[in-house]
């Protein structure tokens, strides 16, 4: 089986995978990083969004081997397990931006990509439009949109569009 | 998804060599059409040749009166290219309307054109601007490149390297976006460059992207939405599916062509 190595949340990792192994499978099954979810497995729902070299992508539509040498960030990489939450995670908690939580890791990783592309001062229209690739099936989007606006602002206060606490 | 062997060349030459040695190989660009199709087992290539590390086929450049876009340039990077937004915002708007942000972060112009999905946006832009598709072997005019649904003039072992778009002073793209998929139910690209007037339609034709000579003729007198007021195209030859009938698609061609012209002449 081909070997693959990459950096995940700041740590060098490697493994032997079949060529057809998806990045999300490698993350969840080989690395046991189960925060990244599989919702639809057809590039629609966004539950599997992670960052590849700082840019959001759907890990169900990437092969692990395509990410050889890449820097991957998953939801687990945003904050230390025993430390405070990332400002965007905190904003989702504060604004009740989740119900069942299944879509939340992807929502948060996409939210950080919106901040990267559009900055810290986001209006509702921009957020809704840019959340096109993420689907929530329980709360509706109202509190998610509020959380992203607040989280983006909070990240700005810290003077950062920080991606990860690596 | 069936398994395959995976190759990562760093030059176009190496990629071509790998295609020659693996007759059942497919090129992998952004993978956002190919991987879903492989998951459904509608495609099961024995080998994938990933173009992700191939040098020299990424980027948007203004070269004289043309814009040259490397085959592996992501949709997001074309949509946000400062030079393209300056010289031809209509073309920049095309990849900006594809899929969702994450898809635009991965999908590429070369992949989109090689796939020639009948509802894809880039084929309309290529045909609507009279682009030239440059491969490792030759230059192909857009008029000769798109040969039917999911079918192109590309031969075995041929790799798209870049696409060259002549800069048109007046150009516009308008699509009726399928609300779930983001694909064009119908999309129309119009342009005027000197005497060359083009109206190209994606999403509507049963045989993929096509031009509308009757509209182009009418626009020769005056490049304005008024010139094609009341003009229609026949429903025969239009695609019909659960999303829209052939008649509705034919109707949309006229409506969207006029809207694209409003944008192009604004």
Please explain how this structure is put together:
- The complex is a heterodimer of chains A (166) and B (266).
- Chain A is α+β, with helices and mostly antiparallel strands and 166 residues long.
- Chain A folds into two domains: 3-77, Roll (Ubiquitin-like (UB roll)), CATH 3.10.20.30; 87-157, DNA polymerase, domain 1.
- Chain A has five helices and five strands; from the N terminus they run E-E-H-E-E-E-H-H-H-H.
- Chain A has helices spanning 23-30, 87-94, 104-118, 124-130, 142-157, and strands at 3-8, 11-16, 49-52, 55-58, 71-73.
- In chain A, a hairpin with a 2-residue loop joins strand 3 (49-52) and strand 4 (55-58).
- In chain A, 48% of the residues are buried.
- With 266 residues, chain B is of the alpha+beta class.
- Chain B has two domains: 5-50, Uridine Diphospho-n-acetylenolpyruvylglucosamine Reductase, domain 2, CATH 3.30.43.10; 60-264, Uridine Diphospho-n-acetylenolpyruvylglucosamine Reductase, domain 3 (2-Layer Sandwich), CATH 3.30.465.10.
- Helices cover 32% and strands 25% of the residues of chain B.
- Chain B contains eleven helices and 14 strands.
- In chain B, strands 4-5-10-6-7 form a five-stranded antiparallel β-sheet. A four-stranded antiparallel β-sheet of chain B has the order 11-12-13-14, with helices on both faces. A three-stranded parallel β-sheet of chain B has the order 1-3-2, covered by helices on one side.
- Chain A binds chain B through residues 2, 18-20, 41-43, 46, 49, 55-58, 61-63, 65-66, 68, 110, 113-114, 117, 130, 132-133, and chain B through 1-6, 8, 28, 31-32, 35-36, 38-39, 48, 50, 52, 99-103, 105-106, 182.
